[in-house]
User: Which sequence fits this backbone?
């Protein structure tokens, strides 16, 4: 019996709970799927793990070889407090570090700046200079632990601090492993923690990519982020589309500078959000791998298939967490983490259930890590590579996501590329429209969020919240003051002048930042030196 005959037979019995079913990206969900519902091209669908176009995973063994990196995001207060949290998480079985920085650090302001008042150490750790980085990483073996740093405008400075700290531990730059986010385009789309205007910001991004290619070969110099685009209100399709468009823009600029694209691509990584539409999220990973590998091969003529791998870190959805009935977030995070694993992520952060209320407590951070460990060691979902391959529904979603992403990429190209689309507010407008549509669905209860617009609790249990020491800001400013008194300020000034000149000459600024960091120049001082040339971007 075919699908049409089935429909005819059961027409009178097909009473359903709503008229239309679709994913968050507007992809139609039929009652069920058959072979006739999916793209008949079989080459990619029959590809094997570790084989181009990597639909079934970027490694031939995937999690049968080793599990994904369990990399919990942490950072608050002082460098010393965060160091203690890192050691606590490593002791509990975490396998990689992920550093959250406070807003002044992200935007290139020192802790004693007037602009920094009230924000020091609040949403991440305060790092003003090499001294803070040394404290942050004290006692952590940087030749054995990989570190991800969610930092963008000041990424070159933070990487330089990390490199020199490792050097002081006896670990050379060619041995350290990790990632700096360094994706400035998404800052103009979704976050706003930029320092300089778009054009010089992207130039600095590519400077760092070039420097790492030659000097820090095991480091990922960029993690192109769809996460923050998703958090701003995009759909899954928009997240993938805009993230890939950003990556294309960076590679185009690198190509124009005669930088070896093949070598660059080997260290380009990506960053996904994982939300609640379980099957769409899984298919998103599979589509991403196929699209990216084909873009590199067809558009950039990358011949080394290994360089075409889409390598991705994932984080469960921050905006999906609710302050109402926060323990429900444990279930949400578990479901999202499982989708990321079934999708084939290389590393994963699971949010703590209390993050809609404040910084995670030790207890909630431990539960978040245990969620990953239970999936890895108890569920057995990692024992088969790409276990959902061949599912008509998954294959259908993979194909549909791919089609919609290419439609967006073509539209962005027609409009003049990603920078032009950002300047014209096209991307921002698309995200805003999706966020608005989602909100209307919530208000009309077309979409249910348990505990928020349905199944509400009559009373909410008060949850313990991680507190930040109110003396932290004062202590950080005092330490910064002492640093400025005790360093070689003549050498500092010389390094800052050289940095400004390098920017004026359009040189790669990374070597000059490394030298400035060695003299204990601060984040704010180096940003100010560059600001003399690039200016400070105030937003549209």
Assistant:
């Amino acid at each position: 019996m075919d699908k049409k005959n089935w429909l005819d037979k059961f027409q009178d019995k097909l009473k359903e709970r709503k008229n239309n079913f679709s994913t968050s990206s507007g992809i139609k969900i039929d009652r069920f799927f058959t072979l006739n519902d999916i793209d008949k091209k079989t080459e990619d669908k029959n590809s094997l793990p570790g084989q181009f176009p990597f639909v079934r995973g970027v490694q031939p063994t995937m999690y049968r070889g080793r599990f994904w990196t369990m990399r919990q995001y942490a950072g608050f207060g002082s460098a010393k407090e965060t160091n203690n949290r890192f050691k606590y998480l490593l002791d509990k079985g975490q396998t990689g570090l992920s550093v959250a920085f406070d807003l002044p650090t992200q935007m290139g302001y020192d802790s004693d700046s007037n602009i920094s008042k009230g924000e020091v150490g609040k949403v991440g750790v305060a790092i003003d200079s090499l001294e803070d980085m040394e404290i942050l990483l004290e006692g952590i073996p940087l030749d054995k632990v990989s570190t991800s740093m969610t930092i963008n405008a000041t990424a070159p400075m933070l990487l330089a601090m990390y490199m020199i700290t490792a050097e002081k531990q006896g670990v050379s730059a060619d041995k350290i492993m990790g990632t700096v986010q360094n994706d400035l385009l998404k800052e103009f789309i979704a976050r706003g923690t930029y320092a300089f205007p778009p054009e010089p910001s992207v130039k600095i991004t590519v400077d760092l990519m070039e420097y790492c290619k030659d000097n820090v070969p095991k480091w990922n110099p960029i993690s192109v982020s769809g996460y923050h685009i998703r958090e701003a209100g995009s759909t899954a399709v928009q997240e993938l589309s805009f993230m890939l468009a950003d990556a294309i823009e960076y590679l185009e600029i690198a190509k124009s500078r005669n930088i070896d694209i093949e070598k660059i691509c080997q260290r380009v990584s990506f960053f996904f959000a994982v939300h609640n539409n379980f099957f769409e999220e899984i298919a998103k990973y599979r589509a991403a791998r196929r699209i990216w590998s084909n873009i590199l091969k067809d558009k950039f003529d990358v011949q080394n298939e290994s360089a075409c791998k889409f390598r991705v870190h994932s984080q469960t959805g921050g905006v999906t967490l609710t302050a109402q009935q926060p323990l429900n977030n444990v279930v949400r995070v578990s479901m999202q983490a499982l989708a990321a694993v079934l999708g084939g992520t290389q590393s994963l952060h699971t949010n703590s259930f209390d993050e809609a209320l404040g910084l995670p407590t030790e207890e909630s951070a431990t539960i978040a890590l245990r969620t990953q460990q239970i999936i890895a060691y108890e569920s057995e979902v990692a024992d088969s590579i790409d276990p959902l391959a061949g599912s008509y529904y998954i294959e259908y979603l993979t194909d549909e996501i791919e089609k919609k992403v290419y439609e967006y990429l073509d539209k962005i190209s027609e409009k003049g590329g990603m920078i032009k689309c950002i300047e014209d507010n096209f991307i921002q407008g698309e995200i805003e429209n999706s966020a608005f549509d989602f909100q209307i669905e919530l208000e009309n209860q077309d979409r249910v969020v348990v505990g928020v617009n349905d199944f509400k609790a009559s009373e909410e249990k008060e949850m313990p919240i991680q507190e930040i020491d109110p003396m932290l800001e004062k202590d950080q400013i005092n330490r910064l003051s002492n640093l400025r008194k005790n360093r070689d300020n003549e050498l500092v000034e010389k390094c800052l002048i050289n940095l400004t000149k390098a920017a004026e000459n359009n040189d790669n600024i990374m070597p000059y930042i490394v030298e400035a960091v060695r003299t204990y120049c601060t984040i704010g001082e180096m940003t100010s030196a560059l600001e003399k040339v690039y200016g400070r971007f105030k937003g549209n």
The mean pLDDT is 94. The chain has one domain: 66-443. The first helix runs from residue 3 to 10.
